[in-house]
Structure to design on (468 residues):
């Protein structure tokens, strides 16, 4: 199912809905809007995954065998830098040294640039018995040019010519005047549940990692020129982080979240979800830009922002409900790009969603904190998760629907903010829709299938397409 939303501002167009079927996996039932029961859909999806020959082959040959990816909590993650010329890197290592990244343009390794970073002491262990003592961060600034292929390697300890480097990976930059990104929400690796939770062979982590990888593979086929991934939060499922067993579970789930090989070349802008917020492991795995003021903080981390061409992206930690902190942060973010053609905010908790049990409980509370900020800063689109069902709002201003006639498929210069609530990025958990349709909802669906969105930006338009 594809739900398109196209906003064209400054005399352009806001346009319509169309549909298209995209198959993600065999033998999984599809439902009409609002008709799926989440428990039935979840059971069917889990059974379809577990019964798949492809899954079983991957489970024994790749995940648990071969390279034993289920134990690799140390996978490197790329993150957007402050601008498109910058890039962040983060990864775990068993020992603490001087981390570094070597990067070069395609065909020019002899003139590679080496940038060192910082290593933070940590004590992390997963259920497979792998232990890590350092969280490594490297930032490469003012280096990357548009539409250029680069290669990079990294090392846990830079010692000059005798440094031990990783394998080579590719990173290809895109244009900034017209570009696309991928949006996902709530992969929540580990949430599908199994009798083997909290063990080396945790079946829920394996199943969710497999489906999360399938989603990201399909997303890159659909949007091969994506500049980065926007994640609406809940990367992992284990919400507690006080007990050693909980910490081990979180790290095993991060091995599943970071497993997709596309993440060695696709930067991740990961928002903090309520399942992420209690653990410092989030900030150890990601190297988010412009977060040094620590506004909107919880134990996991804080608000961050970055600019990509004429688009300002602001990520808020919705687990922190201090409106004034978020306002201070948004003022700083907007000042970094006062002429931005588009202002995009992403945070985890839906405030104009349609899923049980959040949309008419904690969402209503969070609406009081966050909705006024969307109006105050004239935010074009607000991207959220938490609901595990897809919804799209009408344009909303001051809590009211701005009533546009879209029967012709277009409307000029929309006022207010458009709110998107994402579905499940991995299929690990689904929720039912509310048994009524809130006044602000233009479209909603609960197909009980993994989903992702693509967003295309240009100077005059943005187009959102959401796929099951």
């Amino acid at each position: 199912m594809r739900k398109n939303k196209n906003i064209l501002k400054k005399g352009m167009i806001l346009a319509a809905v169309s549909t298209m079927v995209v198959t993600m996996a065999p033998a999984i039932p599809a439902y009409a809007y609002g008709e799926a029961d989440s428990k039935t859909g979840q059971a069917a999806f889990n059974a379809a995954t577990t019964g798949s020959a492809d899954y079983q082959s991957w489970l024994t040959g790749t995940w648990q065998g071969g390279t034993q990816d289920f134990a690799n909590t140390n996978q490197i993650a790329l993150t957007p830098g402050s601008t498109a010329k910058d890039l962040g890197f983060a990864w775990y290592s068993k020992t603490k040294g001087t981390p570094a990244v070597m990067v070069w343009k395609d065909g020019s390794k002899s003139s590679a640039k080496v940038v060192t970073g910082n290593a933070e002491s940590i004590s992390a262990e997963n259920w497979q018995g792998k232990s890590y003592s350092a969280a490594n961060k490297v930032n490469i600034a003012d280096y990357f040019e548009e539409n250029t292929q680069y290669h990079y390697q990294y090392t846990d300890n830079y010692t000059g010519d005798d440094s031990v480097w990783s394998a080579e990976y590719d990173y290809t930059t895109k244009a900034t005047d017209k570009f696309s990104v991928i949006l996902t929400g709530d992969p929540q690796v580990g949430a599908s549940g199994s009798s083997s939770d909290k063990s080396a062979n945790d079946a829920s982590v394996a199943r969710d990692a497999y489906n999360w990888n399938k989603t990201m593979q399909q997303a890159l086929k659909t949007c091969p020129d994506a500049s980065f991934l926007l994640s609406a939060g809940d990367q992992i499922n284990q919400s507690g982080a006080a007990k050693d067993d909980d910490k081990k579970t979180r790290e095993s789930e991060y091995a599943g979240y970071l497993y997709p090989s596309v993440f060695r070349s696709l930067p991740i802008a990961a928002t903090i979800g309520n399942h992420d917020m209690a653990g410092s492991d989030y900030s150890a795995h990601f190297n988010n830009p412009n977060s040094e003021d620590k506004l909107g903080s919880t134990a996991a981390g804080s608000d961050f922002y970055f600019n990509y061409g004429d688009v300002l992206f602001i990520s808020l930690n919705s687990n922190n409900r201090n409106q004034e902190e978020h306002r201070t942060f948004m003022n700083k973010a907007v000042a970094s790009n006062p002429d931005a053609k588009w202002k995009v905010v992403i945070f985890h908790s839906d405030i104009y969603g349609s899923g049980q049990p959040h949309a008419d409980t904690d969402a209503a509370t969070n609406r009081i904190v966050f909705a006024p900020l969307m109006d105050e800063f004239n935010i074009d689109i607000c991207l959220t998760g938490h609901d595990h069902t897809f919804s799209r709002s009408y344009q909303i201003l001051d809590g009211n629907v701005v009533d546009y006639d879209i029967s012709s498929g277009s409307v000029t210069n929309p006022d207010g903010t458009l709110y998107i609530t994402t579905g499940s990025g991995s299929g690990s958990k689904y929720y039912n829709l509310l048994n009524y349709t809130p006044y602000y909802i233009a479209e909603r669906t609960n197909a009980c299938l993994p989903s992702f969105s693509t967003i295309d930006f240009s100077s005059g338009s943005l187009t959102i397409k959401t796929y099951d």
About this structure: The longest helix spans residues 203-222. The CA atoms of residues 102 and 456 lie 31 Å apart. Helices lie at 38-50, 53-63, 203-222, 244-257, 281-285, 323-335, 362-376. The longest strand covers residues 131-140.
